[in-house]
Design brief:
Layout: E1 2-6, E2 9-16, E3 19-24, H1 36-51, H2 67-78, H3 84-101, H4 111-123, H5 128-144, H6 148-151, H7 170-180, H8 187-199, H9 203-207, E4 214-215, E5 220-223, E6 233-236, H10 239-256, E7 267-268, E8 286-290, H11 295-304, H12 314-325, H13 330-337, H14 342-367, H15 375-379, H16 404-412
Antiparallel strand pairs: 1-2, 2-3, 4-5, 5-6, 7-8
Helix pairs in contact: 2-3, 3-5, 8-10, 8-12, 12-14
């Protein structure tokens, strides 16, 4: 640490964690200072900022930045390429990274430090998916610092669940629908579930619906914003989905007296009144903002139906499974459901095959005595059937042309 004068102005030259900071001392107004006492005080503040990773160096390469500063720059650069929700998600996952690595230069983060971070997160009970997302952010920052290639081989990706989702049996589906209809305070979650089961919509797509997205004349629903670009699509509404939309419209008119195009179908605060086991006061709905969640009601519904642990996203999976069992093509499924991964398509191809097998097994059971065929029965030649004579009446006219009656009679055979 050293203060020195260059001309009339005071400068500081110090190092923190191997990073050298050399810059002029400025007062609170950003002006260079000639006062030695003020320069000494400001230098201490700069050192504290550098130790906290809040001080950057002009002309310093990205790799030499303190990790907190490098992370801040990364998040700022990402804003131009990501939506608001993604920005919030990344900021939330980046917070523990910033707290752990702090002022360590991005270019000096070692594989041992990353593994120590993973161990700490696992000790706190954080799931593998969340840890992998955090390491994903760290990876992108270190790539920017030209550091990731030197540690990548030593940082394994934690195993994640690979199940695509859960499809309900017919009995489970009926039980779930009955449970959801048993309590009026669960109606919002029930209507959202019906839409998911009949449109393949994701939860985020349902919450983002606005009244302008619904065409009552053509009975269609437009997804304008989704998880991916492929998710933007138009979905026809069947009878159940249309009934749910009409019920939602009836609720909106009852609450607000009207429905405006830019208002949300699932307004913020609706359904967040008192629920079972809760003493919270009713929240006034706001149609200009979307609902954030129906998690409490959903958990209560699944427990009442004896389906504890069932995710709302499984409703989308069940809907796509029913589409596959109806022999819908991959193109049809993707047109209705939006983005479907190759792995999911392979899974639903298997679902279609099993549906065909079940249909043929049912045909086999109905075909022979006792539901089976004997080889000897198959190879025996069937007795020749005695032909039944067919007599056609000549109703033609004198000129040999046929009349309408003959066409009708022949069509009967």
């Amino acid at each position: 640490m050293a203060l020195f004068r260059r001309g009339k102005w005071w400068w500081t030259d110090f190092s923190v964690n191997g990073v050298r900071y050399r810059q002029p001392i400025r007062d609170e107004q950003g002006q260079r200072t000639r006062d030695w006492r003020e320069a000494l005080s400001r230098e201490k503040e700069l050192i504290a900022q550098a130790q906290a990773g809040k001080l950057s160096v002009a002309g310093q390469s990205f790799a030499r930045l303190a990790f907190t500063e490098a992370l801040k720059r990364y998040l700022e650069e990402r804003k131009a390429r990501t939506g608001t929700r993604s920005q919030k998600s990344e900021a939330a996952h980046a917070k523990p990274l910033s707290e752990f690595f702090g002022a360590t230069p991005a270019g000096r983060i070692s594989a041992e430090a990353i593994l120590a971070y993973i161990r700490r997160r696992k000790e706190k009970g954080i799931g593998n998916v969340t840890v992998n997302m955090e390491i994903g952010i760290l990876r992108r920052v270190l790539k920017r610092a030209k550091r990731w290639a030197t540690v990548a081989d030593e940082v394994p990706r934690l195993p994640e669940r690979r199940d695509i989702g859960r499809a309900l049996s017919h009995e489970e589906k009926v039980r779930l629908l009955r449970a959801a209809a048993s309590r009026p305070e669960w109606e919002i979650a029930r209507l959202a579930m019906i839409l998911a089961l009949n449109t393949t919509m994701r939860g985020c797509e349902i919450r983002g619906l606005q009244w302008r997205d619904i065409d009552f004349l053509s009975r269609t629903l437009s997804i304008r914003r989704s998880k991916t670009a492929a998710g933007e699509r138009v979905i026809p509404l069947n009878a159940d989905a249309m009934a749910a939309v009409l019920r939602l419209r009836e609720r909106a008119i009852g609450l607000f007296g009207e429905t405006r195009p830019d208002w949300y179908v699932f307004p913020s605060g609706e359904g967040q009144g008192p629920v079972i086991g809760s003493n919270h006061a009713t929240v006034r709905p706001d149609p200009t903002r979307p609902m954030t969640t129906w998690r409490t009601a959903w958990r209560q519904i699944t427990r009442a139906a004896g389906l504890r642990g069932l995710r709302f996203h499984d409703m989308r999976h069940h809907a796509i499974t029913e589409l596959a069992e109806s022999q819908a093509s991959d193109r049809t499924i993707m047109s209705i459901a939006g983005h479907v991964s190759v792995k999911m398509l392979e899974h639903y191809s298997h679902v279609r095959l099993e549906a065909k097998r079940a249909a043929l097994d049912a045909l086999r059971q109905a075909g022979g005595l006792g539901g089976s065929y004997d080889t000897n029965d198959v190879t025996k030649s069937a007795p020749e059937a005695t032909p039944v004579p067919q007599v056609f009446q000549n109703d033609g006219g004198d000129d040999g042309t046929r009349t309408r009656g003959l066409c009708r009679d022949r069509a009967a055979f």
